[in-house]
């Protein structure tokens, strides 16, 4: 009886963490996808990089923020707020896909100015794969990636950089 209860407790606590993020890799791209803590079915963060070390950061959500438009995103540590600086980024809001007459998926993409997407991913790593994001016009989002998935993403990103440097 106690063994069953322990197994049930362990699986109940570990299952959401395992499903919260995914890592994928192709010949040309590494991608980490993280579901939002409170709205896992409605909001997703993706970070990717390619062989040319081009980073891309997007938040997929269901809120129309006057798309297409520009806005601001701020990134904060979830822990030790005083120890880690917060960062602000310019984001482009766009319609990603219309599901039906009432539902659409929108993206907020960090503007690629050659350093903002990379800065975002490095800050995410420094914050132990946890971050709070404030997107202008919406309530704050909390993203926590599985360490195993995030480690794999950053290993892949580092391999992309070392492969590029050897060329």
Structure, explained:
The protein has 167 residues and is of the alpha+beta class. The chain has a single domain, classed as Immunoglobulin-like (Sandwich). Helices cover 29% and strands 38% of the residues. The protein has helices spanning 2-19, 116-126, 147-166; strands at residues 21-25, 29-35, 44-50, 55-61, 69-76, 87-98, 104-110, 130-135, 141-144. The chain has a nine-stranded antiparallel β-sheet. The longest helix has 20 residues, at 147-166.
> What number of domains?
1
Arithmetic mean of pLDDT: 83
| CATH architectural designation | Sandwich
Structural class, from helix and strand content? alpha+beta
Percent in helix: 25-40%
- Report the total helices: 3
Largest sheet: 9 strands, antiparallel
CATH fold type:
Immunoglobulin-like
Query: What's the shape?
Result: globular
| Strand neighbour order, sheet with most strands | 1-2-3-4-7-6-5-8-9
Please mark out the parts with pLDDT under 50 across 5 or more consecutive residues, or reply none. Answer: 1-18
What descriptive keywords fit this protein?
single chain, 167 residues, alpha+beta, Immunoglobulin-like, 9-stranded antiparallel beta sheet, 3 helices, disordered N terminus
Structure, briefly:
The protein is of the alpha+beta class and 167 residues long.
Describe the secondary-structure layout.
Blueprint: H1 2-19, E1 21-25, E2 29-35, E3 44-50, E4 55-61, E5 69-76, E6 87-98, E7 104-110, H2 116-126, E8 130-135, E9 141-144, H3 147-166
Antiparallel strand pairs: 1-2, 2-3, 3-4, 4-7, 5-6, 5-8, 6-7, 8-9
């Amino acid at each position: 009886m106690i063994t069953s209860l322990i197994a049930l407790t362990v699986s109940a606590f570990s299952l959401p963490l395992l499903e919260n993020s995914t890592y994928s890799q192709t010949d040309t791209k590494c991608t980490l996808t993280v579901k939002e803590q409170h709205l896992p079915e409605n909001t997703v963060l993706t970070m990717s990089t390619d062989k040319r070390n081009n980073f891309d950061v997007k938040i997929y959500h269901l809120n129309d923020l006057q798309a297409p438009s520009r806005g601001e995103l701020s990134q904060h540590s979830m822990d030790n707020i005083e120890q880690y600086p917060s960062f602000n980024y310019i984001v482009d809001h766009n319609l990603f896909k219309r599901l039906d007459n009432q539902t659409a998926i929108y993206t907020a993409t960090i503007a690629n100015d050659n350093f903002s997407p990379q800065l975002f991913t490095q800050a995410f790593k420094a914050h132990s794969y946890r971050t709070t994001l404030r997107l202008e016009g919406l309530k704050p989002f909390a993203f926590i990636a599985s360490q195993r998935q995030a480690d794999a993403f950053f290993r892949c990103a580092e391999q992309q950089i070392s492969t590029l440097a050897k060329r």
